[in-house]
Design goal:
Number of domains: 5
CATH architecture of the largest domain: 3-Layer(aba) Sandwich
Strand order of the largest sheet: 17-16-22-13-14-21-18-19
Helix content: 25-40%
Radius of gyration: 32 Å
Strand content: 25-35%
CATH superfamily of the largest domain: P-loop containing nucleotide triphosphate hydrolases
Bound molecules: guanosine-5'-triphosphate, magnesium ion
Amino acid sequence: MLVEHLLYTAGAIERVGTVDAGTSQSDHDPLEIRRKISLSASVLPIEWHDHKINLIDVPGYPDFIGDLHAVAQVVESMIIVCEAKKDIDVGFDLAWEVAEKHGLARCIFVNKLERDNADYEGLITTLHERYGSKIVNVQIPIGHQAAFSGVLDLLNMKVYKGKDRGVEIEDAPAGYQEAAQERREKMMDAAAEGDDDLMLKYLDGQQLTTEEIEHGLLVGTETGRVVPVLLGSALSGIGVATLLDRIIGELPSPVEVPKTFDGKAFSPDPNAPLAGYVFKSTADPYVGKINYVRIFQGTLKVDDHVWNVVKEKDERVHNLFFPHGKGQEAATVVTAGDICAIAKLQVTGTCDTLSTQKDKIAIPPIDFPEPIYRIAIKPVSKPDEDKLGPALMKLLDEDPTLRYVRDATLHQEILEGMGDIHLDSAIEKLKARFGVNVTTDEAKVPYKETIRAGAKAQGRHKRQTGGKGQFGDCWLELQPLPRGDGFSFENKVVGGAIPKNFIPAVEKGVRETLEKGFLAGYQVVDVKATVYDGSYHDVDSSEQAFKLAAAIAFRSAASNAQPVILEPILQLEVDVPDECVGDVVGDLNGRRGRLQGMDPLSPGKTLVRAQVPLATMGRYALDLRSITKGRGRFKQTFSHYDELPPTDSQNLIKEYEKQRAAHEDDH
Ligand SMILES: Nc1nc2c(ncn2[C@@H]2O[C@H](COP(=O)(O)OP(=O)(O)OP(=O)(O)O)[C@@H](O)[C@H]2O)c(=O)[nH]1
Ligand SMILES: [Mg+2]
């Protein structure tokens, strides 16, 4: 809603739409309209006092965090919008951390001040507690809750009444003078700190001019030492015009300030060699693929040849435009500092740098978070199955936080993402955009089977039915291999007990059994099989017979070799508020987690490290959210396979035998 009012106030649109009615410029995708939340970033340029401002609205919901990471790579500043209440939302923490990581200037816009439960001072207290003197009030609200009517700007001590384009400027009312002066002093302290000359003047007891204060604040936001706090109501448009002024006055300009990647500064010089970075791409069913590009240096013209440094390919820029939400405006020239979009490139996608073949400038890839949630999907019909692959390719291409894994051993197709709503909406997109219907199921745990001791066994396959019989006979020795070594096969048959041409069949019989498992139907790993003896029949022996004999020998030896089921263990890092540590650790114990350590992260936050079985982590994203009221976050990566506790093993085996029996009954 704030973006909508910024667009309207700046004259980019003639009517204010709303998120709730599905008429906003930013949330224009049919799925965004249906869900009434932002799902992906929208680029919305506006002009204000002879400056172009590229607003990029990113979703706030943690499931759609990918675009925040992508956009943070290409902007200078972040405006964090938060509600006027004491407790800060998760989205705020996420945005703050991403801004810190990318060294972005930031300001805070405190919203919803007109609401009955608005608690502006409560929020300010929380912000000061968390971030200290960085938090600099540059405005104070006039009127409380329903009576909220305007913004007192501490720069010029004027009150901005009215909304959007209809702002009237008045002198500050008497009752506000004292509180305003007190905060103004603090603002001046912060401004003076940014600049030595200002500091001298300030310490000398002289008054700083409005321009000097603004300059001091700008220097402060650039270095991250100052985070100005603005306020208003995005529903009614109060505070929006002053926000526009502040964006220009106090946030760094992309045509002045260089961006630094890996220690290399990119100065926004239009005459420097081209460096354009693709931070996002979308698969539009009509226009095809659209790449969104930030030009860090140089100039891009329509019909230019550019060099895709990552794909090492020349691309021709025929279709160049400035994106406006769902609309666009044709562009002929785009210079350093600006953002544009290019349609119909051949190979280019997210994280690619467009440069010249001579200069080959490369900007590092965006550091996207790893998926933490998984679900199995299954196409409904044959046509769905045929369309699924290409449709998924397009979805994955536009959303790097989405992942697709085909698990051959489990016969499941797994979609991985940032949370349940993320995966839900991906499945919705499959249907809405590509007409692909899928059903979902819980993702199975990829257990494995192995042995803990050596064992030997014979496998004989003999059959005499009418004419040619079947005969195969082999002795196998199994030995456990270290974890992670997989499988190896050795032939130690001497004296032609099994003719050489049948040995590959023995190996094949063993390998097929590895895939099917012998305990509970899971893949067998970390085993060495050695064939060392056997016998054959001149007429009746065949490859098929030796394959079957090997399978029999393997199963028989394995069941005497202290078999065990292995389960995948995840390395988990949970980032939680201190007051939730006890509950989070207790919950991990309940998941058979092994606590590895706890480290203070930032004031009030602790990093809990643990190893936890994947089998118990199915709903962790949801459960952690409820344990920590949304403030906990976690990262998980595969660590290793470990033995499953005997009772769990027995349950799996029983379940498998039941299924097999049912299957045999069916036949
Ligand atoms: N009362 C009140 N409601 C507001 C205000 N601003 C936004 N809302 C409502 O808050 C809800 C969320 O607003 P959005 O503009 O979609 O917020 P957002 O931060 O873009 O949300 P996501 O992008 O989905 O994370 C909508 O129902 C808005 O109508 C405000 O100033 N006052
Ligand atoms: Mg939104």
